[in-house]
Amino acid sequence: MNVLAINSTTSTFLEVAVLRNNKIFYLIKKVDTAYYEDLILLIKKLLYNCRLNIRDLDYLGVCIGPGSFTGIRLGLATMQALAYSIKKALIGFKSLELLAWSVTDNLDNRNILFVIKDAKRDNFYSAIFFKDKKMKEIKGCRLINKNDFLDELKRISKNRVVYVVSDVVEGNENKQWRDFGNIIYLNPSSDDNRAKALIGLTNFYFNKNKRRNILNVQPLYLYSRYCQVHSFQK
Questions:
Q1: Which residues of the chain have pLDDT under 70?
Q2: Which helix (DSSP H) or strand (DSSP E) does residue 186 occupy?
Q3: Alpha-carbon distances, residue 225 vs 75, 102, 222 (angstroms)
Q4: For the chain, first and last CA: distance in Å?
Q5: What is the DSSP letter of 35?
Q6: 59: in domain
Q7: Measured by CB atoms within 10 angstroms of the end CB, which terminus of the chain is less buried, N or C?
Q8: How confident is the model at residue 202, as a pLDDT?
Q9: Alpha carbon distance 77, 159 (integer Å)
Q10: What is the pLDDT of residues 205-221, one digit of tens each?
Q11: Residues 203 and 133 grouped into a single domain
Q12: How is residue 65 annotated by DSSP?
């Protein structure tokens, strides 16, 4: 099975992973102004390193958001074009799922995990997961004010240990969480775990979803009133 998966939803880096013969290959690149060109070149480079042609792929995966508006559009348009050109399925997954899956090895069963990303203007993108063999989303992706998030975290962690992972939040917020007593902060995962999560989520939804029409994969925006597009939920 040959699989290509990408994440372009952050404003700081692009990441591409390929599964070939049960082995995962991965490349990451800091974002610069040549956004579109960087993503195409990164995909071409990784496929070349794996000795794969684009037509050798069995299906593709793409992170649909929430995150950078430009990055979401870039990644989805690129992968839809590639999937359409080779007539293969395209699988969408969320950026908060990607963070959750990348730290799953750090959690035991029945642990609760808060996942957050910076959404600017003192807001977070947030979701809550529960590990029971697999990561299960128990509160879906939403836009939440920082103070509301801290209140919710304090309430839920009052009587049990809660894990938190974020790819951006540190410093003062981290110190506030320590005051709650039952918070364990997980550092962002290693490149190996990010790569495994990209491929793992793509495979998970490929096996789960019966409808795989390329046009069914839609962007997930939680700031639609600013970018003037509709919000889509998977």
A1: 32-35, 168-179, 210-212, 223-234
A2: strand 183-186
A3: 21, 30, 8
A4: 25
A5: H
A6: yes
A7: N
A8: 95
A9: 45
A10: 999 875 567 888 999 98
A11: no
A12: -
